[in-house]
């Protein structure tokens, strides 16, 4: 598998750093942190296994990067209708 390469402009890097530092949703902070680490030259598999608070599958991290590269910051957010559904209806 080829290495994942992310190149960020100064404004993109700053925007991701702001998300890591200040966004209220933990999953956004985690995704932004992973992208920043890959942009710093860490391999995607290392980021998935060691670079985050919780181990992730490398494909998960690669999907985050792909979403960011194609959609920008919007690609980091969970789309409406996705995710865990409530156990009980109101």
Describe this structure in words.
The chain is mainly α. The chain contains 4 helices and no strands. It has one domain. It is 53% helix and 0% strand. The longest helix has 14 residues. Helix 1 packs antiparallel against helix 2. The protein is globular.
What is the mean pLDDT? 91
Beta-strand fraction estimate:
under 5%
Helix content: 40-55%
Termini, distance in Å?
Answer: 46 Å
Assign the structural class, choosing from mainly alpha, mainly beta, alpha/beta, alpha+beta, or little secondary structure.
mainly alpha
Radius of gyration: 14 Å
Q: Give the SSE order as H and E letters.
A: HHHH
**Parts with pLDDT < 50 across at least 5 consecutive residues:** none
Number of strands: 0
Count of DSSP helices?
A: 4
What is the number of domains?
1
Largest sheet at a glance?
A: none
Shape descriptor reads globular
List the helices and strands and how they pair.
Layout: H1 10-22, H2 26-39, H3 44-50, H4 58-71
Short description:
By secondary structure, this protein is mostly helical.
Name the features.
single chain; mainly alpha; 53% helix; Helix-turn-helix domain-containing protein
């Amino acid at each position: 598998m080829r290495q994942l390469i992310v190149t960020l402009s100064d404004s993109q890097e700053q925007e991701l750093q702001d998300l890591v530092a200040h966004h209220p949703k933990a999953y956004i902070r985690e995704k932004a942190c992973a992208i920043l680490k890959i942009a710093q030259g860490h391999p995607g598999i290392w980021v998935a296994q060691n670079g985050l608070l919780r181990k992730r599958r490398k494909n998960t991290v690669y999907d985050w990067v792909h979403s960011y590269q194609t959609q920008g910051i919007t690609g980091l957010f969970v789309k409406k209708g996705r995710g865990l559904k409530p156990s009980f209806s109101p």
